[in-house]
Amino acid sequence: xxxxxxxxxxxxxxxxxxxxxxxxxxxxxxxxxxxxxxxxxxxxxxxxxxxxxxxxxxxxxxxxxxxxxxxxxxxxxxxxxxxxxxxxxxxxxxxxxxxxxxxxxxxxxxxxxxxxxxxxxxxxxxxxxxxxxxxxxxxxxxxxxxxxxxxxxxxxxxxxxxxxxxxxxxxxxxxxxxxxxxxxxxxxxxxxxxxxxxxxxxxxxxxxxxxxxxxxxxxxxxxxxxxxxxxxxxxxxxxxxxxxxxxxxxxxxxxxxxxxxxxxxxxxxxxxxxxxxxxxxxxxxxxxxxxxxxxxxxxxxxxxxxxxxxxxxxxxxxxxxxxxxxxxxxxxxxxxxxxxxxxxxxxxxxxxxxxxxxxxxxxxxxxxxxxxxxxxxxxxx
Length: 381
What we know:
By secondary structure, the chain is an alpha/beta fold.
């Protein structure tokens, strides 16, 4: 069993994939070829915004977005510590300060009710993260941002492309949406890639210039930029995957629901799924559970040759390289979840028999662990 099986997906789209790659090889426009604009049009219409700007990675999407807003030294950006390091990394690289807000105990998403207390005159952006395939409470976050001078909100949607929030698509629910096309993402290429989404014309224009070294016309650099273009070949690969994407989203959701039903039926007191709010859908970039004794559960799965992952074992504000720059201390829920979350095999092509094996192993592992604890308690008595 694989944690995510990309081979089955590739076999299903091989003819279309090879035709798309061959077309790029024939026209030879490897940088900013026609597939770049084609993909941007497809994704823009899907999300329902005015602009999509493809870039070289999800990290670069966040970086370029912050640069387009003019964020730099002395500024603060409110975000979550329970995320991949890239979210905070780009803030620090620009000389700004990440201000960390704790998360909800049942979703791992930034707790919107804690954001307002962290806003200062130096707050120049709020960057919530859509975790495990689900969008945070964006209406509440946007409302807080609007009341404090229309602070820009950047959704880090690297894990949630295809998810919805009150019927609106992830990446189209705030000032800027950023996603990743890393191979294991819900919509992935075969390398690095990403995209920026916005309805703001000025942000879009600045982002397009920044991704090509700050130039609006060749060799005239009106602003500081980066080499942030998405390769034509990677755009072609995403276009080859696109006709299957709607089915994959539905399949991920069905598999996620089945996992949750099986967990509910098993009624394991020490293991519960990360909650998906009623107002939202998840694309289950990961199917993640909260386990009181994660290492014992993970060991049982490993013994059965079932791969797992931990997203994420160390909050950003506890990382060695970030101790001197962290904006706030004291995010106890993030610290606790970092010790308890466990991601199970997931993907649109995950078979029912594999799911059953995962669940049977979870039940057996938790039962063995519970029995061991009972023996320890009796011996202590």
